Amino acid sequence: MKIVLFAGGVGSRLWPLSRKNAPKQFGKIIADRSMLQIAVHKLFPEFKWKDVFISTGKQYASVIHEQLPQLPQENLIVEPEMRDVGPAVGLVVAQMAKMNPDEPLTLLWEVIILLKKKRFSEKYYELQKNRF
C-alpha cells in the first residue's frame, strides 16, 4: 500500500500562526517538530519510506526536503500550480496509477493522522489482512 500526505495548503485557516510563506504543516505549532514531521513519523512502522509520498506545491518542495531528508526524491509529487484540493487529488491519483497501477492507495491530510493514530493503525492492519 502507498500513502500520500497532502502538504500544499497556503496557511489561510490557522492565521496568524499559519501564513502563506509559513503554512501550519511546516511550523512547530504543537511540538518541537513540524506537523508534517509528526504526521509522517506516525506512519511508521506500518509504512516504509519507499511507500510514503508527499503532495505539495512547488514553492514548498525545498521545505519538505529539509524537514524530511529520508523521503526519496521521487516520492515528492509537486503540483505545477496550486488549484485547490480537487485538481491536487486528480494529479496524485493519475501519477500514482501510472507509477503503481496495482497498488492500493491511501490519501490523507496530516491532521487526520495526528488525531487518529490508533484508529489509523487498526484499519491499516485490517486492510492488509483482508487484501485481495
Task: Describe the protein in words.
With 132 residues, the chain is α/β, with parallel strands linked by helices. 37% of the residues lie in helices and 15% in strands. The protein is built from five helices and four strands. It has a four-stranded parallel beta sheet with strand order 3-2-1-4. Helix 2 links the parallel strand 2 and strand 3. The relative contact order is 0.20. The mean pLDDT is 81.
How are the SSEs ordered, and which strands pair?
Elements: E1 2-6, H1 35-41, E2 52-57, H2 61-67, E3 76-79, H3 85-99, E4 105-109, H4 110-115, H5 117-130
Parallel strand pairs: 1-2, 1-4, 2-3
Characteristics:
132 residues; alpha/beta; 15% strand
Radius of gyration over C-alpha positions, nearest whole angstrom: 14 Å
Mean pLDDT: 81
Q: Biggest sheet: strands side by side, in what order?
A: 3-2-1-4
Class from helix and strand fractions: alpha/beta
Task: Catalogue the unreliable spans.
Answer: none
Helix share bin: 25-40%
- Main β sheet profile: 4 strands, parallel
Q: Strand-and-helix sequence, N→C?
A: EHEHEHEHH
Oligomeric state of shown chains: single chain
- DSSP summary, beta strand count: 4
Per DSSP, the total helix count is 5
Strand content: 15-25%
| Shape label | globular
In short:
The chain has 132 residues and is of the alpha/beta class. Helices cover 37% and strands 15% of the residues. A 4-stranded parallel sheet has the order 3-2-1-4.
